[in-house]
Amino acid sequence: MRLFTGAVLVTAALLAGCKNEKTDAGDGVDLIVFAPHPDDETLGCAGITRQALAAGKRVKIVVFTNGDGFPAFAAKIAKKETQSLGTEDFAELAKYRQIQTLNAFATLGGNADDVIFLGYPDSALQNVYDAKDGAPVTQNFTQKNATYGAVRPDYHSAAHGMPVPYVYASAHGDVAELLRKFRPARICVTGEADGHPDHKAAFRFVRDAVKTVHFRGEFLTTIVHGGAQWPWPKGVTPEAKLEAHEVKGVRIPAGVAWPPPLRIALSADDAARKLEAIRAHSTHLVGAIEPGLVAEREYLESFVKAEEVFWVEK
To answer: Measured at the alpha carbon of residue 220, what is the angle toward residues 214 and 225, in degrees to the nearest 5?
Structure first.
């Protein structure tokens, strides 16, 4: 397994496997961030996460997938052509991305025990949402059809001793259980207007669980894939607010009200920590000169602004 500089931050917690999730039962938290993939929790919510942690509050990060459905990323780690990748390479990608997530959370002041990986399939989360009857979904890249752990065990195995199949009832049950267990004051997830299918599905699972448990806290959504040239302005601009703009006659970010109903200011330190956390997720891009990889790094770092913006679900 190829580890990157900085992995030592979380090694002890990883080797220990972290404590059984049941030991946290009934322990209310301020914020739960639900992320479709490793890095979405940082892109959309690193600022509010950092602010909560700095105030002595508790934050849980819940990642739906292991990020194991990204062939170009897997090829870069394995040093192979994409057509030569096997299931073992996507398993290595899952390990790499879990470590990135744990390191990113550590830079914000978080504890590895407060990161939960559900283990559902990257690039197929909407398929799981739709799998209300019949056979479980099989992920194309890993060929798995049940939750699994990489460096860290999946939530259901840690909490109940066994994985669960890739069907709607499994993911809905896990999310609802976490909401009951931790009783958060706030939750945040990517919104239904987000352009990525996995991001829409994450929202739908959280929305359904919110209804199931009669959640009465603050339900916030964020946009990661908001259309061409989002976020705007491009690049690391910690002094600038996020701005809407028009691209080929379409207002970006698409599908949401602007201005957003909730704009949370980030201090210079908040923005610096967010940039550090984003870079923990982009270790595979360090030194990259290929135009596509340079553009990917610029896209990720463009989320470093003087604010984070949210839409409030009723």
So the answer is: 130
